[in-house]
Amino acid sequence: MGPVLLSSLLLVGLGWAAPPDHEVTYLPGLSKQPSFRHFSGYLCAGPGKYLHYWFVEAQSDPQSSPLVLWLNGGPGCSSMEGFLKEHGPFLIQPDGVTLKYNEYAWNKIANILYVESPAGVGFSYSDDKKYGTNDTEVAHNNYLALKDFLRLFPEYSKNDLFLTGESYGGVYIPTLAEWVMQDPSLNLKGIAVGNGLSSYEINDNSLVYFAYYHGLLGTELWKDLQTFCCSQGKCNFHDNANLNCTLKMGEMIQIVEESGLNIYNLYAPCDGGVPGSMRYEGDYLITHDLGNSFIRMPLRLSWRQNLFRMPVARKKVRMDPPCTNSTAPSMYLNSPEVRKALHISPEASEWQVCSFDVNRNYKRVYMQMNEQYLKLLGTTVCGGEPTDPGSISASSAFYLAEAAAPPTAHSVCYIEIPDPGVQWGRRHGLQLSRG
Length: 435
Ligand SMILES: *[C@@H]1O[C@H](CO)[C@@H](O)[C@H](O)[C@H]1NC(C)=O
Ligand SMILES: *[C@@H]1O[C@H](CO)[C@@H](O)[C@H](O)[C@H]1NC(C)=O
Ligand SMILES: *[C@@H]1O[C@H](CO)[C@@H](O)[C@H](O)[C@H]1NC(C)=O
Known about the structure:
By secondary structure, this protein is α/β, with parallel strands linked by helices. The chain has helices at 2-14, 80-87, 135-152, 169-181, 200-213, 219-229, 243-258, 298-309, 311-315, 327-333, 336-341, 356-360, 370-378, 419-428; strands at residues 38-44, 49-56, 67-71, 90-92, 99-101, 111-115, 125-126, 133-134, 161-166, 188-194, 230-231, 234-235, 278-281, 284-287, 317-319, 362-363. 34% of the residues lie in helices and 15% in strands. α4 (169-181) links the parallel β9 (161-166) and β10. Bound molecules: 2-acetamido-2-deoxy-beta-D-glucopyranose (NAG) (3 copies).
């Protein structure tokens, strides 16, 4: 009797553990403060590493709603982009000052934990300010940050847990899930990756066909690509050593990535204007190249290395994902009132949508995620009945494991996003995997 009583008392006590000094009590830019609670502060992701998080409770019934962790990609890009421009409860308006409630907010059905990862991204920082890292280290740091979150908010440790992300989150999420699934104290129910980077090779190869079949390349270039990059019906646009192939691929890349097409949604305009791979804006050199495509192509490689060595690149470079305009969220998050409201440390630098420092010093360990997905699928993350394949509609915004083994309907775990989410998915395009 005694111990049982004690533990239930403890649980009740812990139910109120949300850190009061992290609670956001007044957020600038809203005409009316929200009815749900939200928190912003730092999570410890290892010795001397502090990851900024913004946690929004579900709009109704947070206690029994799932806990969902969200990571934007990059590597080196901030999850505040996902918060303020994609599926957070408040969306930043073009004036960089006003926030509007989001009809399609994910926190209508779940408690969402937005984390800026790794250290060096957004408001996250480390004591040593050295921001070189790699996939292995990031997965572990994200795991430690999640553990720290549940230390601060133990009332959520029994809720269903989902790990979600997009783009380079295609690497972050399965590698984080590997840690999480081995921790019996965490209630992992599933993962979801949108527009994820799951294989550089498949990504590169499929992009060329995508471009051709959407009429972007023209027959002449296509014929040359076939001649120089393919043999016996098999094409290699990923790491082809043939110099002629490389040159033709240069033309292909120019059209697809640097001519102002929106790589995330071909039929949408390019937000932020025609990009080019880099340009100057005021004192800044702006690059849109997150380094996720054609990493094995010699021309691209040397270009990236040169950019990194340029003295100007060390000081004032901004890295914006293609066709994204980060002016409004930057204005908002860098205003002193907002920093104060969100409890941002004075140690944190000025907020930028992506960190050039983190991106260019990042060591990519995994070239494909097959192993991680097979491991995750093998352990019945769903834990139960087969999933009805019919319920994964073609318009679902998120799929799991599309790049791993052939889709096996019985082992697919997914979050069914209600119509609002699908709307979001449509708006943000799911065609291509970048950033
Ligand atoms: C980017 O957004 C800002 C603020 O909303 C706007 O003033 C600017 O015109 C936009 N830039 C481009 C190139 O669309
Ligand atoms: C990743 O970073 C950690 C910490 O710096 C280091 O110990 C490890 O060797 C690195 N792994 C790779 C594959 O670079
Ligand atoms: C590259 O193209 C040139 C001109 O079309 C041709 O003369 C040369 O043989 C090609 N080289 C290879 C390796 O295909």
